[in-house]
């Protein structure tokens, strides 16, 4: 089946037709109704194909979750986890429409990660449609909130991963079609400074500038960067003050932390949460922590990658691997010790940018790769 898909000259075009509908069904994370409209389409396709589907109501303002199972009823199986939410607000499709320019297909969310999630659904429905038996049970999990750290889906992702022998993540492929075998852990924090307001001309010495204190904190956070250890911090956005002639009594910032190891994550979390004011009369409060653990490449992950690379070779293409700084839901599953292969989606570029695109002729080969893994992992 996988080789036939690879050699079918119209397969990528047919997959792209279905993907277009998904791209044009906008699904920003913060609009639960919009995400659910796309979840409805996925549910209908999976039920029509014969999958055992469970729809789990969303909470905390996020959309629903969808779980579909196929294959044997018993044993540790394969979990395929993808998200349907995007960073693009409703209405983006009017100014950034789906379009094809040569080898590229453009549209909001097409690369990150509607193409990958659609490929996963295509794989599951194709197996059911052709009555292909899989050695292991297969679970497809579609989620609504990955772009903001998976606050309502993490628990379910981890529960499903614990029941699985392998996890496949169809996030976007990297340069040259690379899959991902390691990712940095991600921490997110909010820092607030309280100072004392005063007139900047008539009572300057009475004030305690929260903005000045925030500047000290930003420099302290920047000094934590250690590229050799894979540690980076970024402060943005920042805000503070009300008028030029008023000494600011409040200032805020958000902090992004990336680490390569669990130990560094714990150490850096303590350091950031432990920040204290250096300006007399100011206070600093920090909230947050690590929200995605590091995804380290293990021997089991390397073995899984080599299986995928061998399948790709049979299909006629190279499959490099890479370590990536950005996080995904694969961070959660890899941290549990479940062999996880990420970046199985479509090559392209421009994630979260107005030139977001996929190399659409790669849709069929990437679908064949995913199917090859599902059909042979045991």
Series of H and E elements: HHHEEEHEEHEHEEEEHEEEHEHEHEEEH
Helix content: 25-40%
Biggest β-sheet: count, sense, barrel?
6 strands, mixed
Give the CATH topology of the largest domain. Aminopeptidase
Annotated CATH architecture of the largest domain: 3-Layer(aba) Sandwich
Structural class: alpha+beta
CATH structural class of the largest domain:
Alpha Beta
- Gap between N and C termini: 18 Å
Unreliable sequence segments:
none
Radius of gyration, rounded?
23 Å
How many strand elements? 18
Q: What coarse outline follows from CA principal-axis ratios?
A: elongated
Number of helices: 11
Give the rounded overall mean pLDDT.
96
Tell me what portion of residues adopts beta-strand conformation: 15-25%
Structurally, how many domains make up the residues? 2
**Largest beta sheet: strand ordering:** 1-2-6-3-7-16
What is the CATH homology-level superfamily of the largest domain? Zn peptidases
Layout of strands and helices, then pairs:
Elements: H1 2-7, H2 11-24, H3 32-49, E1 52-56, E2 65-70, E3 77-83, H4 92-95, E4 99-101, E5 104-106, H5 110-129, E6 138-143, H6 154-162, E7 164-168, E8 179-183, E9 185-194, E10 198-199, H7 210-222, E11 232-240, E12 246-247, E13 250-259, H8 262-273, E14 283-292, H9 299-315, E15 321-324, H10 330-335, E16 340-341, E17 348-349, E18 357-359, H11 363-376
Parallel strand pairs: 3-6, 3-7, 7-16, 8-15
Antiparallel strand pairs: 1-2, 2-6, 4-5, 5-18, 9-13, 9-14, 10-12, 11-13, 17-18
């Amino acid at each position: 089946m996988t080789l036939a898909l690879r050699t079918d000259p119209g397969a990528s075009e047919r997959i792209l037709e279905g993907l277009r509908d998904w791209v044009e069904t906008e699904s920003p994370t913060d609009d639960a109704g919009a995400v659910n409209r796309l979840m409805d389409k996925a549910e209908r396709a999976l039920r029509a194909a014969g999958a055992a589907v469970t729809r789990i109501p969303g909470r905390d303002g996020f959309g629903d979750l969808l779980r579909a199972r196929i294959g044997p009823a018993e044993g540790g199986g394969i979990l395929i986890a993808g998200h349907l939410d995007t960073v693009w607000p409703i209405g983006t499709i009017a100014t950034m429409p789906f379009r094809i320019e040569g080898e590229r297909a453009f549209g909001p969310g097409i690369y990150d990660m509607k193409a990958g999630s659609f490929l996963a659904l295509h794989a599951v429905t194709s197996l059911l449609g052709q009555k292909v038996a899989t050695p292991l049970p297969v679970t497809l999990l579609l989620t609504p909130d990955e772009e903001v750290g998976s606050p309502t889906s993490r628990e379910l992702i981890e529960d499903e991963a614990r029941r699985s022998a392998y996890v496949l993540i169809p996030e976007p492929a990297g340069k040259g079609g690379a899959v991902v075998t390691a990712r940095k852990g991600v921490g997110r924090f909010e820092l607030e400074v309280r100072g004392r307001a005063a007139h900047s001309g008539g009572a300057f010495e009475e004030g305690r500038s929260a903005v000045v204190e925030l500047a000290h904190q930003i420099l302290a956070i920047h000094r934590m960067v250690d590229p050799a250890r894979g540690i980076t911090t970024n402060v943005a956005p920042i805000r503070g003050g009300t008028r030029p002639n008023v000494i600011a009594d409040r200032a805020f910032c958000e902090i992004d932390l990336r680490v390569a190891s669990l130990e560094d994550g714990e150490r850096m979390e303590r350091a950031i949460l432990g920040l204290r004011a250096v300006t007399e009369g100011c206070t600093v409060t920090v909230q947050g922590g690590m929200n995605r653990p590091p995804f380290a490449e293990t021997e089991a992950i390397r073995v899984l990658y080599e299986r995928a690379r061998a399948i790709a070779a049979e299909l006629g293409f190279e499959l490099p691997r890479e370590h990536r700084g950005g996080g995904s839901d694969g961070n959660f599953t890899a941290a549990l010790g479940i062999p996880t292969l990420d970046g199985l989606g479509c090559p392209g570029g421009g994630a979260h940018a107005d030139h977001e695109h996929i190399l659409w002729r790669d849709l069929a080969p990437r679908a064949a790769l995913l199917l090859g893994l599902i059909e042979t992992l045991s």
